[in-house]
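> call design_seq(struct)
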């Protein structure tokens, strides 16, 4: 990369809004989540020579990890984010105004426009930024998990921390199933990892403005099995800290085979 663009990259890493903490040279972006030490706790399998469809890919942190650390040959990232300031997850109409404002605040394009443009980017899509500066074999497409038919089947499908934001997890998991050639990995945040519901097929309705359901491991397992996945099991459970607030969120990672 030319040195004149290096300053722009630095500014975006230092001053931009990031979902994940990402390291670039000596700089680390201040993400909502820092998976640097935690990612190994997910116990993700090797993906050597496999193609991956990363649904709800966000800034591409996981896509990058699949390519650089797990040996994947290609990742197609799909996300509902248009990077035009509009809300990128489902909310009921009643909550739309509130979330519109909150969401617009996350877009750092207004303050870093010049830097993005110097890098040939016309919005704040960090997935495309990471693709460019790390020279990664990955592409980004706008789309929804509810309709994946225009995207190619992939050896592996991955869906991280999206399920709890969806009003219809069954269609979502079914769509993943149709696109999967070998196996699918679903990372569920806010899962019930302890207590009496851990072993029950449990979905707790938690509201309609950002989060719809919280899930037990058995709840997700049942849905995955019902849409057709075989040998469904838990890969891991882990906790990740929300950097801003300091408390940790429980996650469960499931795998199901075609
Ligand atoms: C909480 S983030 C998770 C990011 C990343 N996958 C991870 O595991 O950390 C959820 C992402 O899903 C996207 N998203 C929300 N609704 C979606 C939908 N219906 N289809 C595809 N992506 C969606 C959001 O824009 C956001 O980037």
């Amino acid at each position: 990369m030319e040195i004149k663009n290096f300053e722009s990259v630095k500014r975006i890493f230092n001053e931009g809004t990031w979902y994940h903490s990402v390291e670039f040279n000596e700089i680390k972006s201040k993400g909502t989540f820092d998976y640097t030490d935690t990612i190994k706790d997910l116990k993700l399998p090797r993906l050597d020579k496999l193609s991956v469809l990363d649904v709800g890919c966000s800034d591409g942190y996981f896509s990058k990890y699949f390519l650089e650390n797990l040996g994947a040959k290609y990742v197609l990232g799909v996300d509902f984010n248009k990077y035009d300031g509009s809300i990128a997850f489902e909310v009921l109409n009643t909550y739309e105004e509130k979330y519109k404002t909150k969401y617009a605040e996350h877009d750092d394009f207004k303050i870093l426009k010049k830097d993005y443009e110097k890098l040939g980017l016309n919005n704040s899509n960090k997935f495309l930024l990471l693709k460019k500066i790390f020279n990664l074999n990955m592409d980004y497409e706008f789309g929804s998990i509810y309709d994946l038919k225009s995207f190619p089947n992939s050896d592996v499908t991955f869906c991280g921390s999206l399920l709890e934001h969806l009003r219809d997890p069954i269609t979502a998991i079914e769509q993943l199933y149709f696109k999967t050639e070998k196996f699918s990995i679903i990372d569920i945040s806010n899962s019930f990892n302890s207590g009496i519901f851990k072993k029950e097929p449990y979905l707790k309705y938690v509201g309609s403005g950002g989060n719809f359901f919280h899930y037990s491991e058995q709840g997700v397992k049942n849905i995955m099995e019902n849409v057709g996945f075989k040998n469904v099991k838990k890969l891991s459970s882990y906790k990740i800290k929300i950097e801003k607030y300091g408390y940790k969120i429980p996650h469960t990672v499931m795998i199901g085979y075609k």
